[in-house]
Amino acid sequence: MLVRRMVARLLDWLLVLVVAWPLVHEPVLVVLCAAVYDALLLRLNTIGKALTGLRVVGPASGLDHRRALARTLITTALPGAGAVLVLTGMGWREPALVAGLGWQQPWVVIGEHLPVGSTGWLPPLLLVGGLVMLVLSAVESLDLRGTRTWHDRKAGTAVVRLKAGSR
Length: 167
What we know:
Layout: H1 2-24, H2 27-42, H3 47-52, E1 54-57, H4 65-89, H5 95-101, E2 108-109, E3 112-113, H6 122-142, H7 150-155, E4 158-161
Antiparallel strand pairs: 1-4, 2-3
Helix pairs in contact: 1-2, 2-4, 4-6
């Protein structure tokens, strides 16, 4: 079940990346698109979960907006923010994100990069912070007990496998 869940998450992220990146070309906005995609389709079913035969269910009362939002923040926004921080800490500079942080853009002039001033302690701090967020996301996802991981228990949800005829 854990492998199916991971494959479903990977398919969903790849779908969002393929659709959103050409439109927005900004990592922060791609993560936001992934969170919106996950939150909106969680009550129905995401494409990745449908392809792997999984479904997120809530308690007997149903999967309300609060539970869907809580689960989305833990499963999508946390690792997505971690990935953006890692990319930023490693020096990948996208215009909107970097402009907000006040970094100078390296411009390519006839195939040569102009030097960029030292950014000091901020990139290593962002890199370490992003790695911590990614590790926390991986650890909480691996805490599988039955059909529920840590984020399922916190959000009051479970992931169940659909029967072959109910897809």
